[in-house]
Amino acid sequence: MIHEVTESLEAFLKQPGLPPPLRDAAIRFDRPTDPYAIDQTTVNVFLFEVRENLELRSSESVTRRVGGHSLVEPPAYRASCLYLVTAWPVGGADLPKQEHQLLAQVLQLIAGTPLIPPAFLTPQLQLQKPPLPMMVVQPDGVRNPAEFWAAIGNRIKASLLVSITVSLKVFDTAQYPSVITSGIELKSMPDGADLDAPFFRIGGTVRDAATTPVANASVRIVERGRSTLTDAEGRFSLSAIPGGNFTLRVTAGAVTQDRAIVVPAPALGGYDVQLT
User: Fold this and answer.
1) CA distances in angstroms from 192 to 86, 124, 197, 246, listed in the order given
2) String of b and e for 98-114 (b: at least 16 CB within 10 Å)?
3) In the 8-state DSSP scheme, what is residue 241?
4) Is the peptide bond before 123 cis (omega within 30 degrees of 0)?
5) Could you say which of 86, 94, 197, 251 is the most buried, measured as most Cβ atoms within 10 Å of its Cβ?
6) What's the CA gap between 78 and 54, in Å, rounded?
7) Could you give the angle at the alpha carbon of 247 between the alpha carbons of 243 and 251, nearest 5°?
8) What is the largest CA-CA distance in the chain?
C-alpha cells in the first residue's frame, strides 16, 4: 500500500500544466547521498519515515448488515508516510536561487492541495475511506538537522517534510449472526410483586416475492396488540414481548400475511416474513 502512495505522489508532481522549472524536473525517490549523481534538474522525494498518525486514530469499528449476518470491520491503522523533499538544479546560473524556486513551487502545490486528487491515485487508493490527507509538516523528529543529513550521507540542505496519511487494514472483517432476539428479565414490579417471566425484543425483515425489502409495512403481534413499521431496509423490531407462541401479521398495501412465530426464535430468520 505504501508503494502506491509513492506512485500517487509521483503522478501528482508530474501533472500536466505545471510551471517551469518544476514542469521539466525529474522526480526521484532514492536517498540523496553525497555526491548525488544526476544529469538534470531533479526534485528528490525521499521516504524518510513511516509512523502511526495518532491524531487520526479511531477506536470505533464499523458494522454493516449483509443478509442475515453482521460484518464488523475493525478500525484501520492510519499510517503517515513522511517524505523529505529537496531540490537539485543542474546547469544555468545561480543554482541556490533555482533550488529555492523549485522548493517554493512544490510548497505552493502541496500546501494548496489538502487531499491528493482522485485522478492521481492508484485504483486501490481511490477506494480509501477517508481520502488521503496531504500536508507540509514541521520536522519535529529532526532536532539536529546537521546530524540528520550526515546520517543519510549528505550535507545540510533546505528541505520540506510532506506527510501523506494512508489507511492500512491490519485486522480481518469479522462475521457474526445478526441479533434477532434480545431479552430482559424483571425480578419485581414497581409495587414489589415478584415477576419472573422475561421479556424480549424481537427483530426481522419483511421482503416481497422478489426478496426485495419492503419499507413502511405494518408489522403487528396479534395477541399482544403491539405494532410498528418497517424502515427503508425492510427491518423492524418490537419490544416487551413475553416468551411463547404468537401470530406476526404483516400488511403492505393491499397484502396481509400472517406468520406463526415462537419467542425466543429457535433459529436465525425466525421473524422474517416474505410476502407472496
Assistant:
1) 78, 62, 15, 29
2) bbebbbebbeeebeeee
3) E
4) no
5) 86
6) 8
7) 135
8) 97
pTM of the predicted model as reported, rounded to 2 decimal places: 0.62
For residues 253, 255, 260, 266, the Cα torsion angle rounded to the nearest 10 degrees is: -60
- Residues 166 and 79 sit within 8 Å (Cβ to Cβ): yes
- For residue 264, whether the previous peptide bond is cis, meaning omega lies within 30 degrees of 0, is yes
Which helix (H) or strand (E) covers residue 66, if one does? strand 62-66
Distances 5 to 194, 235, 271, 276 between C-alpha atoms, Å: 64, 40, 47, 52
Residue partners of 101: CB distance under 8 A and separation at least 6? 21
Of 78, 57, 55, 58, the residue nearest 140 (C-alpha): 55
Rounded distance, CA 175 to CA 123, Å? 26
pLDDT (tens, 9 = 90+) of the chain, 276 residues, equals 899 999 999 999 999 999 999 999 999 999 888 788 899 999 999 998 899 888 887 777 776 766 666 777 778 888 999 999 999 999 888 999 999 999 999 999 999 999 999 999 999 999 888 888 898 877 665 556 667 777 777 778 888 889 999 988 877 777 665 655 665 555 555 666 555 567 888 888 999 999 899 999 999 999 988 899 999 888 898 888 888 999 999 999 999 999 999 998 887 778 999 998
Element containing residue 110 per DSSP (H, E): helix 95-111
Query: Which grid cell sits at 132?
Result: 488521503
Instruction: State CA 80 to chain mean position distance.
Output: 15
